[in-house]
User: Fold these one by one.
Assistant:
Number 1:
Amino acid sequence: MTAVCKHEGLNQWVDEMATLCKPDQIRWCDGSKEEYDRMTALMVESGAAIPLKKRPESFLFRSDPTDVARIEGRTYLSTLSEEDAGPTNNWIDPTQLKETMKGLYNSCMRGRTMYVIPFSMGPIGSPLAKIGVQLTESPYVVCNMHIMTRVGDRVIEALGDDGEFIPCLHSVGAPLEPGQKDVPWPCAPIKDKYISHFPEENLIWSYGSGYGGNALLGKKCLSLRIASSMARREGWLAEHMLILRLISPEGRKYHIAGAFPSACGKTNLAMIQPTIPGWKAETLGDDICWMKIRSDGRIHAINPETGFFGVAPGTSSVSNPVANEMLKEKTIFTNCALTDDGDVWWEDMDGPPPAHAIDWKGRDWAPGSDEPAAHPNARFTSHVSQCPSEAPDWEDPEGIPIDIFIFGGRRSSVIPLVYESFNWDHGVFMAASASSEATAAILDKVSPIRRDPFAMSPFCGYNMGDYFQHWFEMGDRLGENAPRIFYVNWFRKGEDGRWLWPGFGENSRVLKWMCERIDGKAGAKQTPVGLMPGEGDLDLEGLSIPSEDLRKLLEVDPQLWQGEIPDIEEYFEQFGSHLTDRMRTQLDAFKERLAKA
Ligand code: OXD
Ligand code: MN
């Protein structure tokens, strides 16, 4: 039963947007299981969803081939002054952008139903939570929002008659003429796609795409771009981070928040199964972390989401046994391959490939085919409650106090396996100069290595130079209570192209070192880049890793690092007067340490 909304501001906005988009009808989502089932049944009937015989209550969707990932080139941060968006964001003047988009939105939902999705990012009532309302004509988006956020009547109730909400207008941009047959994945051509943010008004307008971060507006748009901008104004942090709890054999709990660019194994790390006897891990989140300094002086984190929208290819019982289990039922799959016996398949899944499958474009596929069967950015959407390693208190409205921040990226050379910052400011510098190799999660970025500070480059809702300053200031406020900062690179390769580190569950050895550093139990040696495990500091018991590989993994080659400096300098220079002197001091100190090494 849909609650009657008594919020005049919300009702008025819905009316105005409906007048613009002209849907045939409007439905308010109540968030119930019946609603979810009704929507999936509707999509099965229309041919948009394929029920999977092998996985109960699971469905496969195939997107339009042009709508497969986030499109950074069509993502905008529209502030009154271009300078406030900064050089890492695409900018269009808000009046001009709204004019263009209103033209596109005009009648864009003809022939379709507009769904009103009230949703909460974070436990309803938590001091860290925020409410959004998404309008969309995509039933696929409704179902994904059900999994990824808290949807429905309870949100309307929490809003009352004047609560604050973030309006999120979304359309796939494909109206239906009377009698026109629908396609399985309606969307607009790339040139008409706009994923727009107006942080000064806390407003999101997305047009033309039905895929992931472009369309599930609670995720990257609200929880990162808009929230990071709110967080700066209000003195908190909205970050592209997983949240993980490690538990030592003695039962001591350590809370880790880790920022990695897309496709660097963030979901795998969030669901890690430690290989060190006695150590356990619990998952709190795999993508987004909101943090506030609470009355105990520590920074507390919540995962604003309720689900995982993870990359399917590469997920196996080796890379992520927890996800493997989680995906056995009640999951939405997008752009995976379909096997003849009614299951999904993707590259690097367990076991041999099927002899025949239907690929993500709906064509016959067989091993040896030129193209992969699943799109490299094929996804699964599963609810947290299905995750075997889910932390029992994942919905704690107070959040959990963070002990450790980890930053990282995917680099086959130069960057060692792990190092710790000398202090907060140095840690901010490490995170700000982070870099990674290209990924399939983004449609239009092809440069082999990109600077991705804090893994926030595509998600920072204001000038990134000011963002660095915000982090420095958070450190000042946290003082002694500041989490320790580490940098990791699981992806270093030998000259023969082999991965030097086994990764996955074995990453727990690196995490254990971090935990022991906090407790003053593990040693470290000083290097120009930071503090690194010395001989015997990493627990490698039971792991057979050639000592030469280990030496390379922990090698700091000052000359190779010198090669990074011009790129870091050039990157920082683009922020001009928005780059704080504190960052310049860190860069100079780093150069000096390298010169002396
Ligand atoms: C994601 C991304 O989908 O970062 O999480 O691209
Ligand atoms: Mn992400």
Note: The domain at 308-386 is CATH 2.170.8.10 (Phosphoenolpyruvate Carboxykinase; domain 2).
Number 2:
Amino acid sequence: MANVIIVGTQWGDEGKGKIVDIYAREADVIARFQGGNNAGHTLVVQGKQTILHLIPSGILHNHKICILGNGMVIDPEVLIREIDELLERDLFPPDTKLYISENAHIIMPYHRGLDSARETRKGAVKIGTTGRGIGPAYEDKINRTGIRFCDLLNRETFGEMLRRNVEEKNFHLTRFYNDKPLEYGAIFDEYSGYADRLRKYAANTSLMIDREIKKGGDILFEGAQGCHLDIDHGTYPFVTSSNTSAGGACCGAGIGPTKIDAVVGICKAYTTRVGSGPFVTELTGEMGERIQRVGCEFGATTGRKRRCGWLDMVLVRHSVRVSGITGIALTKLDVLTGIDKIKICVAYKTMDEEFGEYVPSGTKLLEQCQPVYEEMDGWSEDISGAKTMDDLPVNAKRYIERLEELAGVRMSLISVGPGREETIMLENPFDRAGNLSSPETSHKRD
Ligand code: IMP
């Protein structure tokens, strides 16, 4: 029995969908703990593509409990659409175990309205949000004016809270942003319909998870986005509005830190970012375009082209520390095949300082940072069939070993292609309860 958190180590889009899908097979419960439909993972089932933004991909494995935790912000319209899409394809049988925390916050139309009105007003200095209302929904949560799922389910409470919110938000929308006001009655009717539809999924999910842990179940906590989009530890203000690092799993799912056995950090073999904000290893020329094209780097939620660059190990080291990562799942290594010389960023430097251990906090300082690169020989052999480290070309192995040294943790898994079978499995985090890896104690590989 083990409880494992999966988080991104970069700016999201590290390829968590595939890794979560692999580990979900081991788990009895898959719980999301933060974010909302700003995330998205693409699943190909029966040859047809589905993009899930809210429901954990574990939903496709029969009999698994899938939880939308209290730390999430949920757009009910999007959730119902996802359920309907799965229903249409017979992927949501009547006994599907989907549960929504009564404490999760609800994204309302005025959240989406404020998100886009603010971005428009910011112009060139915008954050580049996904426009889904995520930030304004979390603002209301912290401001103690948010509507939780349990509030939505009670007509009277919902009506009162909605009236107060609409009055205040309309003031901001019309007076400050010159936008159109929203109508209370229309929202009330629409959202009452969502409440009727979703009521049966409401649960005290913290208690459910605790009961499963006591029964000896395996729990997978599925993070969205990545550590450097964390509201506390990321490249603020160009971040999302939740705690994307491993600590967020405890608060966002309602379990204590003593229950966690392992933390897997997903790290792409290069770096990408969508939205604005400093990006020290960004490649704007031909190499960046090559990585973007070969890696199919388009956002699953907004379809935006992702900015691409060399792997930045300052970012990853920072994430290993902040999330207490015990093993890395390296993804998209195959995208680097055919590149003659591969660079790894090992530190940042400015005119007078060098940073190797952490990403400096000040935006202006970070913008001045230049990457310090190490260069390694690449490989040209197709690696997609590799099943063990020994199947990899020697230069690919050297690249991986150097990353382990720089990160200070070993690899748990290496992904060499999009398919589930295109994976080198090194360690199963669910086997290691109480036996966390460190570079000194982990497996022997040759
Ligand atoms: P928000 O989460 O929509 O408020 O967006 C804030 C920032 O986080 C923007 O730069 C987004 O592009 C970024 N972001 C949010 N979700 C994701 C994600 O799933 N992958 C990558 N970037 C994301």
Note: The chain has two domains: 3-90+205-441, 105-200.
